[in-house]
């Protein structure tokens, strides 16, 4: 007679069910994805090579309010800090990090990034945050310099046309001081300015752009206008010179000696005429 089977323990069955449900949520060892974790804010520092340099306090405060109400909806990207054991450097998400500090949070949801940190930071900024045209141009130039990448390769990577990448990089031909003050100028206006050769015309248009009185249409009209040459003499000036010459001839024809005052005026006039002829 076969031995009788003991009935299954309801406690053991419940435990096995809980273990099975929990295992469904565990990260498999061969997962292709990097998974999020909580990183202490005190151990995170921003990347000194971050392409974006300007962070408006009002924008950070608005993001902090959203995160306080809705939570952190997207993790930041971090890489290990080679100078601090257990420390991290931001690859992407500095606005979220600043907003978390604004809220007084102790930690931040993060994902470790082990790839090209500079490339990831640039792509994150270009795709998610509105850089100023100057910041965008400097970031693209750094990508080309540090990675030995061609403009065509950068354009393909960013999903842009080679002409757009070339126009953005050309912004760096403008004076650095002007670019620092040009954060609010339209990008298309800056591109048109960058197409001008350095010289008096560009200097004048740069001043107009900073004053807010330059449009793309006016800039193109100024560029198409032929350079100003020497002004032709006006008919009025020619008439006056001929009248003066006639009066002098008539005075000479009179044959009378010059008065002292007349001589002084004529000598002064001679000096001015000589100076003008030598100009």
TrEMBL record:
<dbReference type="GO" id="GO:0007059">
    <property type="term" value="P:chromosome segregation"/>
</dbReference>
<dbReference type="InterPro" id="IPR004437">
    <property type="entry name" value="ParB/RepB/Spo0J"/>
</dbReference>
<dbReference type="InterPro" id="IPR041468">
    <property type="entry name" value="HTH_ParB/Spo0J"/>
</dbReference>
<comment type="similarity">
    <text>Belongs to the ParB family.</text>
</comment>
<dbReference type="InterPro" id="IPR003115">
    <property type="entry name" value="ParB_N"/>
</dbReference>
<dbReference type="InterPro" id="IPR050336">
    <property type="entry name" value="Chromosome_partition/occlusion"/>
</dbReference>
<dbReference type="GO" id="GO:0003677">
    <property type="term" value="F:DNA binding"/>
</dbReference>
<keyword id="KW-0159">Chromosome partition</keyword>
<dbReference type="Pfam" id="PF02195">
    <property type="entry name" value="ParB_N"/>
</dbReference>
<protein>
    <submittedName>
        <fullName>ParB/RepB/Spo0J family partition protein</fullName>
    </submittedName>
</protein>
<feature type="domain" description="ParB-like N-terminal">
    <location>
        <begin position="37"/>
        <end position="126"/>
    </location>
</feature>
<dbReference type="Pfam" id="PF17762">
    <property type="entry name" value="HTH_ParB"/>
</dbReference>
<dbReference type="InterPro" id="IPR036086">
    <property type="entry name" value="ParB/Sulfiredoxin_sf"/>
</dbReference>
<dbReference type="GO" id="GO:0045881">
    <property type="term" value="P:positive regulation of sporulation resulting in formation of a cellular spore"/>
</dbReference>
<dbReference type="GO" id="GO:0005694">
    <property type="term" value="C:chromosome"/>
</dbReference>
